[in-house]
């Protein structure tokens, strides 16, 4: 998938959209060679790559650097850059600067968490030619306000509020929206209520697509597990065996052999 136009068309034409959150040139070359549709350079990189406890450590500069690396390996696939903590809350000028940095680095779109209080930012970016992907439900940048990593939209009022937010995101002109950790019935309702694709993570299978983090879906994030993650490969075991084999070969003097020596 090369553009947000193709992304939007999938709502009616199918098939469902596959998105992977990835951060490095190395990962994006794997993704370019795969049938995965599009790449999100997520601010989860602060946690997954840097070992930070929260995503707050990501800054527009750090994100732009990773977007550049990913875009160079993406083979023309749609690359979406994630606005980091508070980047959409400093007003329109700061948001424009952040988006400009991302698009100059090679992204074709940006993702922004939340909608209330920054609808003007979403609208301004869209009207400036910057495609915006919304993100509601469990938005990790609001973790303290949400009281931790909790399923959102439980109960009638909370579900209705998420539907309202989804409609506001569509009304602002966003080309799609991520639904994170919401009950499947709420994700289904939102997916039916809006005319833009919904991408779920921990939101059941009735969304228009799914997103997972590269390391999580490939079993490369040892010790991290949560209910919605399926390990599609045991990358951790492959890496572990490879490293053990290297150390053993070196210890025994088996590596390098004659063929591996100049
Ligand atoms: O930062 C990220 O990787 C994300 C996705 C998990 C949706 O926001």
Summarize the structure.
With 262 residues, the protein is an alpha/beta fold. The protein contains eleven helices and eight strands.
Question: Could you describe the 3D structure shown?
Answer:
The chain is α/β, with parallel strands linked by helices. The protein folds into 2 domains: 4-231, TIM Barrel (Alpha-Beta Barrel); 235-262. 42% of the residues lie in helices and 15% in strands. It contains 11 helices and 8 strands. An 8-stranded parallel beta barrel has the order 1-2-3-4-5-6-7-8, surrounded by 6 helices. Helix 9 links the parallel strand 6 (176-180) and strand 7. Helix 2 packs parallel to helix 4. The longest helix has 18 residues, at 235-252. The chain is globular, with a radius of gyration of 20 Å. The N and C termini lie far apart (44 Å). 3-methyl-2-oxobutanoic acid is lined by residues 21, 40, 42-44, 82, 178, 180, 201, 211, 213.
Oligomer: single chain
CATH superfamily of the largest domain: Phosphoenolpyruvate-binding domains
Query: What separation lies between the terminal Cα atoms?
Result: 44 Å
Q: Any idea what the CATH architecture of the largest domain is?
A: Alpha-Beta Barrel
SSE sequence, one letter per element: HEHEHHEHEHEHHEHEEHH
Q: Portion of residues in helices?
A: 40-55%
How many β-strand runs?
8
Average pLDDT rating: 97
**Main sheet properties:** 8 strands, parallel, barrel
Sheet-strand content, in percent, reads: 5-15%
């Amino acid at each position: 998938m090369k553009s947000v136009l193709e992304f939007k068309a999938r709502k009616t034409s199918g098939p469902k959209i596959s998105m992977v959150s990835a951060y490095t040139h190395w990962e994006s070359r794997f993704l370019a060679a795969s049938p995965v549709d599009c790449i999100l350079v997520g601010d989860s990189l602060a946690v997954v790559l840097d070992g930070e406890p929260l995503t707050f450590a990501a800054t527009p500069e750090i994100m732009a650097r990773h977007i550049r690396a990913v875009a160079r390996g993406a083979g023309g696939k749609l690359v979406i850059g994630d606005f980091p903590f508070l980047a959409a809350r400093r007003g329109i000028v700061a948001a424009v600067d952040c988006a400009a940095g991302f698009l100059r680095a090679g992204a074709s779109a940006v993702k922004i968490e939340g909608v209330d209080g920054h609808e003007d930012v979403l609208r301004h970016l869209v009207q400036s030619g910057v495609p915006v992907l919304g993100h509601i439900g469990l938005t990790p940048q609001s973790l303290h306000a949400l009281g931790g990593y909790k399923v959102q939209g439980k109960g009638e009022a909370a579900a209705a509020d998420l539907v309202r937010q989804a409609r506001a995101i569509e009304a602002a002109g966003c080309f799609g929206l991520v639904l994170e950790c919401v009950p499947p019935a709420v994700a289904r309702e939102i997916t039916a209520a809006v005319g833009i694709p919904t991408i779920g993570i921990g939101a059941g299978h009735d969304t228009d697509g799914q997103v997972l983090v590269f390391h999580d879906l490939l079993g490369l994030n040892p010790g991290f597990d949560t209910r919605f993650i399926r390990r599609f490969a045991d990358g951790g075991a492959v890496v572990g065996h490879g490293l053990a084999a290297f150390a053993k070969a070196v210890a025994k003097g088996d590596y390098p052999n004659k063929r591996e020596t100049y």
